[in-house]
TrEMBL record:
One of its GO terms (cellular component) is plasma membrane. Keywords: Membrane, Transferase, Transmembrane, Transmembrane helix. One of its GO terms (molecular function) is geranylgeranylglycerol-phosphate geranylgeranyltransferase activity. It comes from Pyrolobus fumarii (strain DSM 11204 / 1A). It is found in: Cell membrane. The chain crosses the membrane at residues 20-37, 44-62, 92-124, 136-155, 167-184, 217-235, 241-261, 273-293. This is Geranylgeranylglycerol-phosphategeranylgeranyltr ansferase. CDD domains: PT_UbiA_DGGGPS. InterPro entries: Prenyltransferase_related, UbiA_prenyltransferase, UbiA_sf. It holds the Pfam family UbiA.
Length: 294
């Protein structure tokens, strides 16, 4: 029972559902490039997804390691405060996951190895330093590392198909939308956690620049996504399937803006989580259908 208790702590540390989202983002990038270039080679997909999963998992573990003092007060049931995993064990586990992720990247290409190394370093630096000292830098790091998995998957397709330039351009389109939406959600989370963050001296856009500025910035980003969402179908290669799913993103963004104006930040954050899912489906559905039917 003691072993199972500890194993459950390790599993909880890596946040499997969030790692799955990161892997799916990598698939979005890979499939997008395969569809637009007409080249599908799964040989490069699996090491890329392994790197994404391992680095993402390591990032979540290292976040819990550095937040153990905060979690001891606000989330005492988390693996480290509850004693299921010691801080030293969590730190070693995080470093091992990050190292294995970087190794998986290098097994694919030097580019992917260096890419994974940079992301791993950012994921370590965020909770260790940025989270409590650098408001906007921290938010931007979270958004950039989250969206980077899409480009990572796209570059994997580019390596196998010898089309790195085309793969970077193709995967940058969904990555740009993901970055903007994640950044908006980061601002909403800062609004939701304002009181707790203020009490413990955390640096966020809300604690550093005020609630009004954070809310205005979140609304501005959501409006940008809503306005730009139809463009891949109107002037790009996507069609009706994308447009139908993108319309859900637009509606959810408008709904989230309404919630933000009313100060209902937890509901807005949950709505944006659903919007992110529809956004991923919008970029994934049409390429998958095209690749299946070709």
């Amino acid at each position: 029972m003691k072993l199972l208790h500890k194993l459950s702590g390790y599993v909880e540390l890596v946040r499997p559902h969030n790692v799955l989202v990161a892997v799916l983002n990598g698939i979005v990038g890979f499939v997008t490039v395969a569809w637009l270039t007409g080249c599908l080679d799964n040989a490069c997909l699996y090491p890329a997804l392994a790197a994404i999963a391992l680095v993402a998992a390591g990032g979540y573990v290292v976040n819990d390691y550095f937040d153990a003092d905060i979690d001891a007060i606000s989330k005492p049931s988390r693996p480290i405060p509850s004693g299921r995993v010691t801080p030293g064990e969590a730190h070693l586990f995080a470093l091992a996951l990050l190292a294995l992720g970087v190794y998986a990247g290098f097994s694919l290409s030097i580019l992917h190895g260096l890419y994974a190394l940079i992301v791993a370093m950012l994921l370590y630096a965020y909770p260790a330093w940025m989270k409590r000292r650098r408001a906007l830098t921290g938010h931007l790091t979270v958004a950039a590392t989250g969206a980077s998995t899409i480009i990572y998957g796209g570059l994997a397709a580019g390596v196998c198909c010898n089309s790195l330039d085309a793969s970077l351009l193709a995967s940058s389109i969904p990555a740009a939308y993901a970055f903007t939406l994640i950044l908006a959600r980061e601002f909403v989370k800062a609004l939701e956690d304002f009181e707790g963050d203020s009490a413990r001296g955390a640096a966020t856009i809300a604690t550093r620049y005020g609630i009004r500025t954070a809310r205005s910035a979140a609304i501005a980003l959501l409006l940008c996504v809503a306005v730009a969402a139809p463009l891949p179908a109107l002037i790009g290669p996507y069609g009706a399937v994308y447009l139908a799913l993108a319309s859900m993103v637009i509606l959810l963004n408008v709904y989230s803006i309404r919630l933000l104006v009313r100060g209902e930040y937890p509901k807005a954050r949950r709505a944006l989580k659903i919007a992110f899912g529809f956004g991923g489906l919008a970029f994934l559905a049409e390429p998958v259908l095209a690749l299946i039917l070709r």
